[in-house]
Design brief:
single chain; 518 residues; alpha/beta; 8-stranded parallel beta barrel; 5-stranded antiparallel beta sheet; 11 helices; 23% strand
């Protein structure tokens, strides 16, 4: 537990608070007063802040994120408490409230909020299981001249959260506005061909790409398989989808898997046609395949803006030849892909992409090898699913380190979260209630929104503006019979539909609004 108070002292404070009158509102100002809880050290009522509810549970104490002190919610008995301050003299417009938080978990409610700003209360849930500091943000429109900034907890005995380094800035972004506001649309064409329809949140039918674009998405990602059994995600289908994507004014990321099916850390299987190739033959095949797809895109006027040479290549690619146990081989294969990208269009960016986005040791080791073997790249990509890859603080630390260590922009190339644990087809869902319990966000529409927003917020706050963007993985892959995960099995279903950004009525979910704040 992250606190310095003894239980006896806390009990005494609670007894005094029970006899005291409610705390008076703090004096209002147009900027946050005492944002780091440093002004009067350890205190029952921090300078500038007001408290309501179980006021003894709200205080400042030693152990700040950047200074000596922090705000804390904690009590030896169950409590509901709010710590807040009201700012006045504000001009109208969009504002973003951010704070660094951590939590022991288990609260029935814990959130950062903007309220009494002239519209509906806006809030973001504080992850209820993160022992390391992580930044969260919420944006709202201020249509009056005042706004109340609030942190709220409803918790059982001995549950805690910490708060520090609060900021309130005008603008919808908070941090650096992202260049890449992306979504992977690789399964959209197959879904549509089997009858999938898409609707806005109000129920108007439309093109899924247009719906996502209108929400703020500006970049689409398409994977490429060499010779998939179902004929989807091959060169021809990618060319067709690229025309639609570019026609909507979106940029294009092409994701080469160098396989006939899924390539990820657990499987990097060469295409069947390349199965017996030597290293020299694989180098030629990688170059020719990459060049062929990208040149065809360029010829039809849909040049790729960014390319992944390999997908989640933690163990290497085209195993066993291109394993990380033989970096000389792997570096040759990577260079073959990079050279083909640049031969088609020198300004197309090259991303090298790993999974396990919170694993800094792996990222350091892998990219140190890539640099040592002089593999050229422009962007570092990371997959991050909080239910697999650990706390948000791990992602934050890793991206910040990658951007600084290699001087390159960083992108979360894949992320997603579930809006429910219910199924919409017969395929067992990947995202389950047990996975949801690891992240600190409920399996709900708002939980999905907050989990997506938390990842976006981390990328926006990578130092020196090197947080380039985020791709939500398969926002339009709803459950549609015939459009399953296995290209070799037409009866396979979709285990991802509860993480799409369209609900089981194919209507846009609230998480899609996160694109507008990126």
């Amino acid at each position: 537990m992250h606190r310095a108070k003894a239980l006896l002292a806390a009990a005494a404070l609670a007894a005094v608070a029970a006899l005291a009158a409610p705390a008076l509102p703090a004096a209002a100002a147009s900027t946050v007063t005492n944002p780091g809880f440093e002004s009067n050290g350890a205190s029952q009522t921090p300078t500038g802040w007001s408290e309501s509810g179980t006021v003894a549970a709200s205080k400042s104490e030693a152990g700040g994120r950047s200074g000596s002190y922090r705000g804390t919610h904690w009590s030896a008995s169950a409590y509901t408490v709010e710590t807040y301050q009201t700012l006045t003299g504000l001009s109208t417009g969009s504002y973003t409230l951010s704070a660094w938080v951590r939590s022991g978990g288990g609260q029935s409610a814990a959130y950062l909020a903007m309220k009494n700003c002239g519209g509906a209360q806006a809030q973001v849930n504080i992850p209820t299981s993160t022992s390391a500091w992580v930044q969260v943000s919420v944006t709202a429109n201020v249509s009056s001249t005042s706004c109340t900034l609030s942190v709220y907890s409803s918790a059982a005995a001995n549950q805690w959260l910490n708060l520090d380094d609060v900021t309130f800035v005008k603008g919808a972004t908070g941090g650096t506005s992202l260049q890449v506001k992306g979504g992977d649309l690789s399964s959209l064409k197959k879904n549509e061909d089997f009858g999938a329809l898409y609707y806005t949140s109000s129920g108007t039918q439309g093109d899924a790409i247009a719906i996502l674009k209108n929400a703020g998405m500006n970049y689409a990602r398409l994977k490429v398989w060499v010779n998939p059994a179902d004929g989807y995600n091959n060169k021809a289908r990618v060319l067709t989808m690229a025309q639609r994507i570019k026609a909507q004014g979106l940029k294009l990321l092409v994701d080469f898997h160098y396989s006939d099916s899924w390539a990820d850390p657990g499987k990097q299987v060469p295409p069947a046609a390349w199965a017996n190739y030597s290293l020299a033959q694989l180098n030629t095949a990688v170059y020719n395949h990459t060049y062929d797809v990208l040149n065809a895109l360029k010829a039809q006027g849909t040049t790729a803006d960014m390319v992944q040479v390999g997908n989640e290549i933690n163990p290497g690619m085209l195993l066993p030849t291109g394993s990380t146990s033989n970096w000389d081989n792997l570096s040759q294969l990577l260079k073959s892909g990079v050279n083909a990208v640049k031969a088609v269009n020198s300004s197309t960016l090259v991303m090298l992409h790993l999974a396990e986005g919170g694993d800094n040791a792996t990222f350091r080791w892998w990219f140190d090898q890539a640099v040592a073997y002089r593999v050229p790249f422009d962007v570092i990509g990371a997959s991050f699913y909080c239910y697999w890859h650990g706390p948000l603080s791990g992602l934050q630390a890793n991206l910040n380190d990658m951007a600084s260590r290699y001087g390159k922009p960083v992108i979360v190339a894949e992320t997603a979260y579930g809006f429910t644990t219910a199924q919409d087809d017969g395929e067992t869902n990947i995202f389950t209630s047990s996975l949801a319990s690891t992240c600190g966000y409920p399996a709900s529409a708002t939980g999905q929104r907050d989990a997506f927003a938390a990842v976006v917020n981390i990328v926006k706050n990578v130092p020196n503006g090197r947080g380039m963007g985020v791709f939500y993985w398969e926002p339009a892959w709803t459950a549609q019979a015939g459009s399953g995960w296995d290209p070799a099995n037409p009866s396979s279903g979709n285990g991802w539909e509860n993480q799409a950004l369209f609900d089981y009525s194919s209507r846009a979910l609230t998480a899609m609004s996160v694109y507008g704040s990126m």
